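Ops channel
N.P.: pipeline sanity check, posting one input/output pair.
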């Protein structure tokens, strides 16, 4: 089984379905196959800032029931960049050295970081600064991490959005309404286009393709002319107005977040067509709940492969999915290649071939 190792694992950034399945796979492979020790680090890198660090020992018995559990038992955070960490007195501090000290205090031989491109970039910078052994696992419902066809969490989010569209067909038809479903997608429209095609939407708006309100409304008029008394629109939260402005909302903490494009469109569609229009914002519902079978499968494959990379001493690499198999790529290469929806790709061609309005 080779030399004994103590490895850490953390989840960073927004939560999503499938994180616990990945944690479970890491523990099964590391403990069951190699006889190593696994420590779960709480609240991402913030757990390493504490002294002693906040961790939980992870054995097979502790993780065996996690395959279908949503969220992450380790906790996570998408706030507080360690290199510019907000302190209680209002100052900003670089706390990266504390994370490095926590890694060494625990006696870790390597650490597995599960995160999106932003989290992996931060973890890689810390690892390079402190000469830490890092392996990455991609997760994001946006599915925008480069070099991998799948990231943990996206498939479940698409399933949830598709189910919402399925339900909206009936209520939209009953009241002859235009229904707008606003889905997540920070910079990429993967959820919107996948769910929109799968759910039979009439209009799909994604940030990668510009649109015009006149042509969108014309699509709705054409449906009315064919005797269709309702329409379904799926829009990614990152879509801009037809004049190119970003739509945001300010939360109770004064933080500016993407959101509101659905309401913007509803007002203008109602004014243009006279149709009664309703907006549904899925929000964090897309992140929660039981992971889909595909997310469980991908997470399990990634977890096993990540441990094997540590056994091979292959650090500064991220596992990914290409051509029906797990591969490993340098983290720097993965985060340098942002994966947006290809305007000339198969999904866009499919949507247009189905008569869905995608933009101009």
């Amino acid at each position: 089984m080779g030399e004994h190792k103590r490895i850490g694992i953390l989840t960073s950034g927004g939560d999503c379905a499938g994180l616990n399945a990945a944690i479970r796979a890491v523990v099964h492979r590391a403990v069951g196959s190699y006889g190593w020790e696994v420590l779960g680090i709480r609240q991402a890198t913030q757990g390493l800032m504490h002294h002693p660090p906040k961790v939980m020992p992870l054995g097979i018995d502790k993780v065996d029931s996690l395959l279908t559990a949503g969220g992450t038992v380790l906790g996570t955070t998408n706030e507080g960049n360690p290199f510019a960490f907000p302190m209680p007195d209002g100052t900003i501090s670089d706390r990266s050295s504390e994370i490095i000290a926590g890694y060494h205090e625990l006696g870790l031989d390597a650490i597995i970081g599960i995160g999106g491109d932003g989290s992996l970039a931060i973890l890689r910078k810390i690892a390079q600064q402190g000469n830490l052994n890092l392996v990455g696992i991609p997760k994001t419902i946006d599915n925008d991490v480069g070099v991998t066809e799948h990231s943990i969490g996206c498939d479940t989010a698409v399933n949830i959005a598709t189910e919402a569209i399925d339900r909206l067909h009936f209520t939209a038809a009953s009241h002859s309404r235009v229904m707008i479903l606003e889905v997540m997608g920070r910079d990429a429209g993967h959820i919107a286009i996948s769910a929109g095609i799968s759910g039979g939407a009439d209009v799909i708006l994604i940030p990668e393709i510009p649109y015009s309100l006149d042509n969108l409304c014309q699509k709705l008029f054409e449906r009315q002319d064919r005797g269709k008394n309702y329409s379904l629109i799926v829009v990614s939260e990152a879509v801009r107005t037809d004049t190119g402005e970003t739509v945001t909302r300010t939360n109770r903490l004064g933080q500016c977040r993407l959101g509101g494009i659905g309401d913007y469109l509803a007002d203008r569609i109602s004014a243009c067509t006279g149709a009664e229009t309703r907006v549904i914002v899925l929000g964090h519902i897309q992140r929660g709940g039981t992971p889909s079978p595909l997310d469980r499968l991908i997470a399990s494959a990634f977890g096993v492969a990540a441990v094997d990379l540590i056994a091979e001493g292959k650090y500064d690499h991220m596992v990914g999915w290409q051509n029906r198999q797990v591969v490993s790529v340098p983290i720097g290469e993965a985060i340098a290649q942002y994966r947006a929806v290809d305007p000339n790709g198969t999904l866009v061609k499919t949507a247009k071939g189905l008569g869905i309005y995608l933009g101009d």
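N.P.: looks fine end to end. The mean pLDDT is 94.
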